[in-house]
Amino acid sequence: MRSDFQGCERRNGLNHFQGCHDRIGIARKVDVECSVHLLIRVIRCRIFHDCDLVTEFGRFQAYCEKENVFTVARITRELLTGYASTWEEHYQSSNTRVSVRERLRSFLRYCLECRWLDRIPAVPKVEVDEPPTLPLTGAEYACILASIDSVRPLRFDVKGVTRLLGPRTKARLRALIQLMRWSGLAIQDAVKIRRADIIREEAKGIYRVVVSRQKTGTDVSVPIPTEVAEEVLAAPSPNPACIFWNGKSQSRSQVTMWGGRYMRPLFEAAGLRSGHMVSHRLRDTFAVDLLEKGVPMEELSKLLGHTSIRTPEKHYAKWVKGRQDRLDALVIGTWDVLGHHSSQKRRSMRIK
């Protein structure tokens, strides 16, 4: 069966294989390994170019084999439910688990189109954990910067830590933290920033970060302090065009390296609560700082690159200075009314 599979793939890829699998008699008997390999080879460069398909679908294949399921036709809802229960072990972020679920459903749809399945079995839904909004105080942020000299990053296998960072890596890590704090960029946008994205506006005497968000495609333009811009631009890098990205590896691996290997142990070294969303606290700090200084929510939404104002309202509404001042005035106003009614009631009782 493997030779038939490889021959079909070599001759004409997916379309030829879909047209001839009935003739070679594997429409109902194709095994999981063959279908996984074919899917990876056909769509690696078209759909899932930013994901490690081999590792992800390899886990699914290994789970199927452990459950003695070797053909696509034997994939059931019960099997998928059991497989989904293993995701938290490999993917800490609920958003990542949502993506894994969608890619698994794409694989099942592909098998249905090839007529290896009669129907698509249900895949358990993933409940997305909303990370709490945790802006950093000035003292906490200063502690993070001070801890860069003593932090020991995690090993690539996440089993322990390595030696202290070298001077070049320290400078780049500090520059990345400064950039995220003062621009509000998400880590996936910050790690891929190019030097050309930091623009000097001579007329205004300021530096500006101009990028397009990877998540939403929205253009973002944010002024940043001159000292921060100069520190970021001066950071050493093996790639002359970029600062934190080598220009070769996938963006997901860069996020894992800077966010997981470096920032997580850095926050822990600074005595702050860690987790899989530690880098987002820098974005929270940027947003909350602006709101507390009176920047309207509509303008903040544009600076953060959101497509809807509902997203920042959901996370940052309680920090809106003007809104909170109005709410405070309304509540305090009820105290005056309450006191007035109470005094009137006491006077009427004395008269009686």
CATH class of the largest domain: Mainly Alpha
Whole-Å distance between the termini? 102 Å
Mean pLDDT figure: 80
* CATH architecture name of the largest domain: Orthogonal Bundle
Run of helices and strands: HHHHHHHHHEEEHHHHHH
The number of helical runs is 15
Widest sheet, order of strands: 1-2-3
CATH superfamily of the largest domain: Intergrase catalytic core
Return the domain count.
Answer: 3
User: Structural class, from helix and strand content?
Assistant: mainly alpha
How many extended strands?
3
How is the main sheet built? 3 strands, antiparallel
Our Rg estimate from Cα atoms comes to: 27 Å
Work out the helicity level. 55-70%
Describe the structure.
This protein has 352 residues and is mainly alpha-helical. It folds into three domains: 2-113, no CATH class; 138-319, Intergrase catalytic core (hpI Integrase, Chain A, Orthogonal Bundle), CATH 1.10.443.10; 320-352. It has helices spanning 2-20, 32-43, 53-66, 77-84, 87-90, 94-113, 138-146, 167-183, 187-190, 226-234, 251-269, 280-292, 297-304, 310-316, 321-351, and strands at 198-201, 206-212, 219-224. Strand 1 and strand 2 form a beta hairpin. Helix 2 (32-43) packs antiparallel against helix 3 (53-66), helix 8 (167-183) runs antiparallel to helix 10 (226-234) and helix 8 crosses helix 12.
